[in-house]
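Justification of computing resources. Each target in the renewal requires a structure prediction run like the one illustrated here; the chain below, 670 residues long, is used simply to show the kind of job we budget for.
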Amino acid sequence: MISLNGLNPEQRTAAETVTGPVLILAGAGSGKTRTVTYRIAHMLENLKISGKEILAVSFTNKAAAEMKERVSHLVPAKVRKGITLSTFHSLGIRILREDIHHLGYNNLFTIYDQADQMSIVREGLKSYRTNKTFEKSTIMSKIGLLKNKGISPTDFPKSSEYDPENNYDGATEYVYHYYQEKLQFYNALDFDDILFLVVRLFDNFPAVAKKYSERFKYIMIDEYQDTNQLQFSMIKSLTSTHQNICVVGDDDQAIYSFRGADISNILNFEMQYADVKVFKLEENYRSTFPILDLANQVIKENVNRKEKTMRTSLMEGSIPLLWATGDSDHEAAVVIEEIIKMQSHGIALSDIAILYRSNTQVPPFEDQLRISQVPYNIIGGQKFYEKKEIKDLIAYMTLIQNPRDELALRRVLNVPNRGIGSVTLNKNLAVAQEQKRHLFHVLGDETENEAIVKFVELIKNYQRIFHEKPLVEAIHQIIEEIKYYDFIDKSYDSAKLANRKREDVKNFILTADRFQDRYHEDATLKNFVERLLLSDSHDRNSPGDDSKKNEVTLMTLHASKGLEFDNIFLIGMEEELLPHKKTIQDASDMSEERRLCYVGITRARRKLIMTYAKERKMYNKMFPRFKSRFVIELDKCYKEVDRTNFGDMSEEEVTDFKKNFFGSLMDSIK
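Resulting structure tokens:
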């Protein structure tokens, strides 16, 4: 038996309620993951529900992995066998692998990344007859938006998203058709297709939706406030034969509308399902009372929200500070100075984070950190899997898994150099188009071009090798056979840069090694490639050592959600930064900006320092700045300190400073 005695009363009641629709409103730091994992354990161990009937969905691979790990500590492997704990997109892949044939695809499809998608959009724009120029990224962004709203190429001209007077919409209509036709011909999907096609599958084939609804009789959705309309439609189909749906989330932390997230999904949950049981987790285990009090006062000003007030037993703690600084450079200087002071007092740099609304705020902080030789990590730099060498290797893996993938084939056909130029490629592309065959099959007919014959043999040979040998051994072997390290050395004049690229390849192999250690017999090439292409930004950011490094973390407020640090610097707490200038100019609803402020505040466990600048330079001119409306009338919840004078010092410290300053000045004059 699993004991639920370790949960607080609200958590326990939520964990024990497993039938019918359930809404768990889990405030920041309220033990949400603990509640969900104990709920799953209770269902498996105490209620003897089969793991095959339970589906738990989260948004990131990291969150899904954490949930799996926690459940594994509570329930024996035999009891939890068959349970599905995954992300929306991983679940979508699983469904499509089984049933995509209903939509005319082969189940061995490839998932294209952004560069692959852009390549097709580029081709589509070339064939679009017009004398106007269009940005590929704008077209691609619009296609993604349409898919996330469930709008097909055929439906687009009839939708409210279409403006016949807009040239871009005319181009998008053509390219969207072209793009989808090419994807299907290549037997490929893009990331947005995964859920788009699942919903289409469920809508067009109700029997398929019924099959999965009957398979997953108990469904849990984490971070429900971040779901979009496609995900909502998918959830409704999965609950078509029952009402055992438990959603967990916090409308006060809904900050991703720019990605298509629809806060109305959680706000209107009680209208979508009958007899919903609502549980509020209002006990915060993260932050001290002064920090939580400020957060509560900030968020309660939002009108359209589920009423809740977070509380904590951590009553002792320092009051949040709001520093008034001179300008951007001074703001960075005093923050980094404070971080150095913290470090000298034994505080680990890994317990410190600098949060900001916009990436434009980062440069002065980077400069100060470098000057002060303080180690730091900016979340959101160049992603490991976007580096050329890594993309080359992934293209090889993808092509071996799916020879129909023309973009992967074209990427590696002459990498390393085999003497197969664009003339030869274009000749074979023309044949493939004329005969309506896949490029790899056309190349397979070649008998005279020795380089092409050897390349086709290489790919076919490694289809067998990856089937027969362990993943890591096969990857090592192909890298050696194609002499990829030699290729790197010849590609870069700088030995230092070439060595760095070699290290990237070695890190790629280490990634495969970790994957193999974790998944054992399931560490197949197909699963590995899927894992790489589905990795979320958090997974991709640290390809090397997984251990926590002692460095200051810098990230946007959006990226900080779900994380926590002992010490938080929330910089730019001022008008036109938080709330953002665009929101003010558009006279938009301020509620999401306020939620973003709330998220930033609640990342802090022990110490919160907010900053604003009295002026900032824009367009080579200094402009006055003003503290944010979100805190301007909450001065009882924080202490404001003017860092442009001695405001942060006691009277004794000021006296000592002046005495030492003037003493040093007189000594220098003598």
